[in-house]
Structures are given as structure tokens and as C-alpha cells.
Amino acid sequence: MSALPKDKPQRKEKRMGKAPSEGGHGHKAKDVTSRPKDSISTVSYMDELGHHDDNPRMAVAMENTYRMGPDKRFSVPALTAILKDVLTSYLQEEKYEAEWARQMTKTLCEVIRARVKELGIPRYKTVILVHIGQLTGQGMQISSRCLWDAANDTFASYSLKNSSLFGVANVFCVYFE
User: Fold this and answer.
1) What does the alpha-carbon distance between residue 83 and residue 106 come to, in Å, rounded to a whole number?
2) What ranges does the record give for the region Disordered, renumbered to this chain (predicted)?
3) Homologous superfamily assigned to 76-175
């Protein structure tokens, strides 16, 4: 009769996936590696920490070029001409509206970026900033800072005013070694 109560817990442990301890002596060791049957893992496999994309990006293998400077630099007059043409054609006859200005800054950045890429100068990263504001007699100062290599990096800026708004566009071209 003493064997019956002992067998009942052992049968329960077998159903739960636990094995009796090897040491015996009536003590039952807790099996750390087993988990309850209703537990579901919610962690998915990731190659690198911090990347949670559904579409993993393939690493592009490129050979070293050992170039310390660009083959061709951006021409500041060419960049200024692009900025002048885009701002004049899009903003010359417009009236300021807040919602319109928010959408127009995005559009102008995309148009300027496309025109700068048409110049076909490789190994440069471009940063385009466009500001549109209402003319109500206020003053405004715009400044920017970055790590700059005066030998290879360049920028251009252009501003336009009409009766109700102003527009300022800046293009920064930073050489990517």
C-alpha cells in the first residue's frame, strides 16, 4: 500500500513530461528544461539584433576602390540653377496656405533630388532641405551643422520671395568614401 501513493505522483510526472530525480530518497527534483504543454514561443529567429524587417536585405559585396577623393565634383552653379528653376516654377505665383506648404516642401525635395541625381555624379550623398513660410513681416534665421570635408563636400542654396510666401532650398552634397 505504501507503493501506491508513490506511483501516483510518478505517473502524473510522466504525463507532465517530468522524470523522477536520479538521487531517489523520495525527493523530486524540478526539471528546468521542460515547459508546460500549453506554452508557445513568441520569439522568432533573427540573424542580427536590431533588424526587424520582414524582408531581410542582402549585403552587397563591393571591392575596395582605394579612392581618397571624387573623380568629379558637383558644380555649385549647376546646383544653384536647379534650385532656382524648381523654386521659381513651383512657387512664383502661389499664395501661402499651411497645409499646401507642408505638402509642397515634400514635393520640392523629391523634384530637386531627382534633378540632382540626373547630373550623374557618383559616390555622393545628398541632403535636401526646403523651407516654405508665410511673409508677415517677421524675421527668420536658418542654420545647419555637420561634419564637413571642405576639399570634397559642397552645398548650394537659393531663396525666393513673392507677395505672400518665401521659399528657401538647400542642397548638401557629401562625398561618400
Assistant:
1) 14
2) 1-40
3) Tctex-1 (3.30.1140.40)
C-alpha cell at 90: 513651383
- Domain ranges, ordered by start, for the chain: 1-29, 76-175
Tell me which DSSP letter residue 12 carries.
H
Distance, in Å, from the CA atom of 22 to the CA atom of 126, rounded to the nearest integer, reads: 68
Model pTM? 0.63
10 Å CB burial of residue 172 (0-12, 13-18, 19+) is buried
Please tell me what DSSP assigns to residue 45. Answer: P
Q: What are the pLDDT digits (tens) for 79-109? A: 999 999 999 999 999 999 999 999 999 999 9
Contact of 113 with 126, CB cutoff 8 Å: yes
In angstroms, the CA 82 to CA 155 distance is 12
Q: 23-70 pLDDT, tens per residue? A: 445 544 454 555 555 545 454 444 555 555 566 677 777 777 777 788
